[in-house]
Amino acid sequence: MLNFDFYNPTHIVFGKDRLGELDTLVPKDAKVLITYGGGSAVRSGLIDRIVKALGNRKVEQFGGIEPNPSLETCERAVAFIKEHGVDFVLAVGGGSVVDATKLIVMGATYDGPVIEVMKAGVPEVPVDMVPSPLPFGTVMTLPATGSEMNNGAVITYGDGKFPVFSSLVFPKFSMLDPTLTFTLPEKQVKNGVIDTFVHTTEQYLTYPVEGRIQDRFSEGILKTMIEIGKETVENPENYDIRANHVWASTLALNGLIGAGVPQDWATHLIGHELTAAYHLDHGITLAIVLPALLEVKKADKLEKLAQYATRVWHITEGTTEEKADKAIAKTREFFESLGVSTRLKDYGLGEEAVDKIVKQLEDHGMTRLGEKGDVTPEVAREILTRAL
Fold this sequence. Notes:
6-stranded parallel β-sheet; 47% helix; alpha/beta; NADH-dependent alcohol dehydrogenase; oxidoreductase; ADH_Fe_C; two-stranded antiparallel ribbon; 8 strands
């Protein structure tokens, strides 16, 4: 097992009918800014319920945070905070709102352009650059990204998507009420299932390092998502099914299953470029890239793929290579069973998209991806070609 540090201070508040507890979670004297996305949180009455739960606190609102949140939107929110003297932020929505809020709370206390914080985000924004971000909490309405219990964000700027990390932007608390996800559009639920699944494979389908506990946790998440994936899409108000979806999404990216094991992330980084170039949903890009990547990198991932085949898909017959092939096919079938195509051609994209994405990867310095740093632009081209 690899050396690791594990730290996660986020307080999880899980279950139905708990909005009233915001009054005890948010400091009594806080001037609060609620950040949110489109109008659904307003139309559903959720924002009004949250304002009521916050009692006599002064509350401001900043809406319009888009999917794949932009630097420009974050900059406007930072200017709003500085103008209104906010000292606590409450993110209401899915991963995009929470990601944006992480950059916003850093930008709000940084004496300089917000873009400088964003560009310093890998491997991590230096603590002495932003030593005291504003505190924030979340009320989650979409199970997908795990952003509610980690210290990472992805911000869109120009033709790129930029990861931003800081050890100081774990949410103080995250309220996970599965009932708040019941009215999600079907497409967003599908994307959330895929995002949870692929977050897990990025930390599991690499190479063995005797991380037995991490493997078992990962396999449990994968098996759960296979069991409930279609049902959570088709029966959105089944509380028990959706509760498992919500918790699996959080556990898939809160640092636990990735501690002490190699991590890949090439699927996500190639997928980010597809989203930036063609505005495909994040979950869709993952469904396109992962099966093709596993086919191309099968030899390097063979031992873990065979383990995945046996433990997750219950494939027990055949050679190691045959098991790996069957597991990859099962993965593609799972995504397709949700009604999500795994081929670029089904989104009107052909060879020209392969050329464009490879060039973007090169332009953004993403030339040594994967757990071994061997997913070069040439390998990425092979993966994207397989995905046609």
